Amino acid sequence: MMKKRSKSSMKAGLPPGTLFHVGDRTTEKARISVIDYNKEELIEKVVDSVEESFEFVERPSVTWINIDGIDQIDVIEKVGKRFGIDHLVLEDIVNTNQRPKVEDYSDYIFIALKVVRSQPDSIVVTVEHLSLIIFKNCVITFQEREGDVFDPIRERLKKAGSRIRAAGSDYLAYALIDTIVDNYFIVLETVSDKSEELERETLDNIEPQTLHEIYKLKREVILLRKIAWPMREIVSYLEREDSELINESTHKFLRDLHDHVIQVSDTVETAREMLTGLQESHLSVASHKMNEVMKLLTIIATIFIPLTFIAGLYGMNFDWMPELKWPWGYPAALGLMGLIGLAMLFFFKSKKWL
Fold it and tell me: pTM here?
């Protein structure tokens, strides 16, 4: 799991609404991209300053402003001042530890989300904080770093006559959230494949490293659970909310999105239960193998107890002992020990202890 260097303790005591970035610095300069579109026209541009992006908002079209680099406090402040965004919202935007949530401020809807990605050939899940604000004809997204999961949305926007080009900002926001949720399924598929691999390793060969991998994967699933459950609240709220910013035609898509989020939550719960069972199975198989080893050692020790008794009895240094002068005493003692050992082996076999 990607660990963020938390600065929450440094924020203690500051007034509410103070913009203080919590997380790792990921950019030297904010990258600001704009996509402005309607049915007939689309403009895609990377602007040099955030003020340049404000010009597109005045147009009678839908504008998507994407800002990569929430550690650039000055840029976030300029956006907040231009659009009248509450300082408490700006505080949540720059706080990467913020829990996913949704808030309706009448003029705009603020949504805090988490984007998850899986690493190739690894059980590590990376988490990125993403904020999304919906206005009447504008959507603003704030991301930690460059590179995201929204390329399919950009491709759909480039197709003239597509549904997204004809819809408003609320549908664009739905499409962005839907893409994030779809990416959860990709991560969960990776988790599922790794779980099956660990299950085979548990049954075929018990190794301490396997149990360590199970614990690591279980931590990742718990992280996904902490992200997926608030998503149910967010989408459910958007689905039920009677807001002027969300058109009635978008509600049916939000209902479908709500079903997807529930499916994600159920899949996460299933994965968590499966890993818990796999963890218990690993410990059970390891305990069973240990019991088998202990049983074998106990049988060996039990066989040698009477043999040790006989050897110890005739190893005592007394002058007057039976069979000491008998020529066949040594072969007879060895033969007796062999018969006792064979008899005990036959007895253990009949009891199915071997």
Answer: 0.78
